[in-house]
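Tokens in:
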């Protein structure tokens, strides 16, 4: 019975140690584990049994969680496969639209170059007209001079 009371006193202590291990930083685990060895003889064995039970419990929880989320994962993969098919169709459409825009853009470039050439010609013509208008008085004087010379004045 004395051994039973020791085990009853040790179990809550082991529970506390396990909670402390799970909740603290790994750098602080050393002193906590040392307390297991310092307490009572056989405390180490009892702690290891408790630790194994805790590990099995966590493993069960992980398995439950995995089972719970497995169907959602499968559904998500199925949805991704559907989206991939739609994405491939969309990519083909975008590529086709891009090709048509490129072709239309080439036509626009050709017409724009024609417009640029026409504007340059217009500007050149305007410049020539301005320069000729500057020369008009001189040409009119030359014409009058030629008339007077032919009339011998």
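Residues out:
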């Amino acid at each position: 019975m004395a051994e039973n009371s020791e085990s009853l006193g040790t179990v809550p202590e082991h529970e506390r140690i396990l909670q402390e291990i799970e909740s603290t930083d790994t750098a602080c685990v050393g002193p906590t584990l040392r307390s297991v060895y310092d307490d009572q003889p056989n405390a180490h064995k009892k702690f290891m049994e408790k630790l194994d039970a805790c590990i099995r419990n966590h493993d069960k929880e992980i398995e439950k969680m995995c089972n719970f989320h497995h169907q959602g994962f499968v559904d998500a993969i199925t949805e991704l496969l559907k989206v991939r098919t739609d994405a491939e169709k969309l990519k083909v459409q975008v590529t086709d639209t891009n090709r048509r825009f490129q072709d239309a853009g080439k036509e626009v470039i050709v017409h724009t170059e024609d417009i640029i050439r026409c504007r340059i010609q217009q500007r050149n013509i305007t410049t020539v007209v301005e320069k000729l208008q500057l020369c008009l008085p001189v040409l009119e004087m030359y014409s009058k001079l030629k008339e007077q010379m032919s009339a011998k004045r």
